[in-house]
Design brief:
Elements: E1 12-15, H1 21-32, E2 36-39, H2 45-55, E3 63-64, H3 72-86, E4 91-94, H4 109-137, E5 140-145, H5 158-178, E6 184-191, H6 197-210, H7 214-222, H8 234-245, E7 256-259
Parallel strand pairs: 1-2, 1-4, 2-3, 4-5, 5-6, 6-7
Helix pairs in contact: 1-8, 3-4, 4-5, 6-7
């Protein structure tokens, strides 16, 4: 593994929301490059066993830590538990996210609070907990998975858009605070639509709500804003995270990197 391009051998990577979709692909790629994977997400014991095998690397077996990221203490404990078990967190990927689509005047307040807690507040709590150790060791990578909706808005997604704009702003503020530190960076990635179970669910819901076929939803609603008219591939996103995680990414700091087929170029 040492001769793998952009090797992450012996780095400890903590990834939230890694039991499916984008997070799972990120964990696979960082493990392929040698990182020791620590992760959380929604999964049963059978799924966790399979993921532990999938995420194992030359640095050791993967470690699953259960957490409710809507609870501030759990987000902090993810970091402190990782440090207690493995000695450090070198790479923190704040990926976990939730969504609800509804007009703002009928948007459930509990859904708003949940989205803010998981999508934004958990990013703060995990980052706050990870930074002291990163500073003391002189290396750290904080990578926040935001969204194209962290840069532009869409109707009926007020909480999600607000939370992802918050993630981008938080990323920039942290980046400025740590800019003088040795080899510490904080960046956000803003993908367009990635084909994940979450998006599959949205497609089905939209098809039912608008009496459309799923193909029509994909072409006329989901990908209408993406000029290249295709989903972002999870492996493309994983390659960008891997770049930011290693030495080749040390001059990226405070960036909100679009990977959206031209969506936010409009």
């Amino acid at each position: 593994m040492a001769d793998t391009p952009q090797s992450l051998e012996n780095k400890v990577a903590l990834i939230t929301g890694a039991t499916s979709g984008i997070g799972e692909m990120l964990a696979v790629e960082l493990a392929r490059r040698g990182a020791h994977i620590v992760y959380t997400g929604l999964a049963n014991s059978t799924q966790i066993d399979a993921l532990n095998t999938k995420f194992a690397s030359s640095s050791g077996p993967a470690l699953f830590i259960p957490a409710d990221l809507s609870a501030p203490g759990d987000a902090t404990a993810l970091v402190t538990t990782t440090e207690a078990k493995l000695g450090r967190v070198d790479i923190l990927v704040n990926n976990a996210g939730v969504q609800h689509v509804e007009a703002v005047d009928s948007f459930p307040t509990d859904k708003w609070d949940l989205i803010m807690a998981v999508n934004l507040s958990a990013v703060f709590h995990a980052t706050r907990a990870a930074l002291p150790g990163m500073k003391s060791r002189g290396f750290g990578r904080i990578i926040n998975i935001a969204s194209a909706h962290g840069l532009v808005a869409s109707p009926f997604k007020s909480a999600y858009v607000a939370s992802k704009h918050g993630v981008v702003g938080f990323t920039k503020a942290v980046a400025l605070e740590i800019a003088a530190e040795a080899n510490l960076t904080c960046n956000a990635i803003c993908p367009g639509y990635v084909k994940t179970p979450l998006v599959d669910g949205q497609i089905k819901d939209q098809a039912a709500a608008h009496n459309m076929t799923e193909d029509q939803v994909v072409s006329d609603i989901i990908l209408a804003a993406q000029p290249n008219k295709r989903f972002v591939e999870a492996h493309e996103l994983a390659a960008l995270v891997a770049l930011l995680s290693g030495d080749d990414g040390r001059s990226f700091n405070g960036a909100a990197l679009s990977i959206d087929g031209g969506w936010t170029a409009r």
